Amino acid sequence: MxxxxxxxxxxxxxxxxxxxPLSRSATAAPTWHPQGHGQHxxxxxxxxxxxxxxxxxxxxxxxxxxxxxxxxAADRLSDETxxxxxxxxxxxxxxPEAAATPKKVNFLTAEGIFKRLTERKDLRKLNYQLFYDDxxxxxxxxxxGGGVSITAGLLDMVTGEVGLAMVLGHxxxxxxxxxxxxxxxxxxxxxxxIGVFFGGDNALVTGALGLAEASHSRSQEHAxxxxxxxxxxxxxxxxxxxFEFFEDIHKLKEKGDSKFARLMSSHPYTPDRIAALRKxxxxxxxxxxxKSRQPNN
Length: 297
Known about the structure:
Blueprint (H helix, E strand, L loop, with lengths): L1 H11 L11 H4 L10 H38 L3 H7 L10 H4 L5 H14 L10 E5 L6 E4 L3 E5 H6 L3 H16 L2 H20 L4 H34 L7 H12 L2 H7 L6 H15 L12
Parallel strand pairs: 1-3
Antiparallel strand pairs: 2-3
Helix pairs in contact: 3-9, 6-8, 8-10, 10-13, 11-12
């Protein structure tokens, strides 16, 4: 019996010279293919990438066309028409709780400065109005039609006349460049596009457009800064103390104050922004024009 078993084993034994080595594919780890295995998975992956590329190209094209269209329309809207269209729009700043709250003493100072700034004949012919917002966040906004809102928090932070003039001049700079009007138009147009193409709010698309708008906003802030500083110099006769707001928000940043992060969500702060203003300040103060009275700081 034992001899028979040994014989059977010998009959089934494959000689070494006839053994086939294991292929590399049999010993190597299996290769992973996106969206499946093999050529079919690779094809699906390529189609996905191609579709994403087409979608991005469409979004970029639409975004650019919307910007061009809105800017074209905004630039051709007369001051009179803008004033009429947005006659009641600025009243959104008149919150019931703010109206019932006593205004900061500094608001009266701000109103006087605002009046001086808006009396200039070279400004757009809008219905300029200054509104009080009792928010503790230091900020200011420009609304289509000529409205400007300033918060209690900013009035607490910026107390010098020239510093307040710079803040208000900055917002008036937005009006002169039609930034408020363009921003409203772009916001409405982009919201409609997202709704039509994506059936409502799409986090990915909204985030991408938000990044694009943030870059667009930064360029507008630089432009408004320059126009504001020129307006301050020509109206107040000096730029001394004009950067009070920027210096104060820099202190907030150094302290790690949460107000800084919330403020920068709408008004980006960058060191080169102040550097650009310093250069413009030098140019303005080197002009030979006669300066008006020096305001209190």
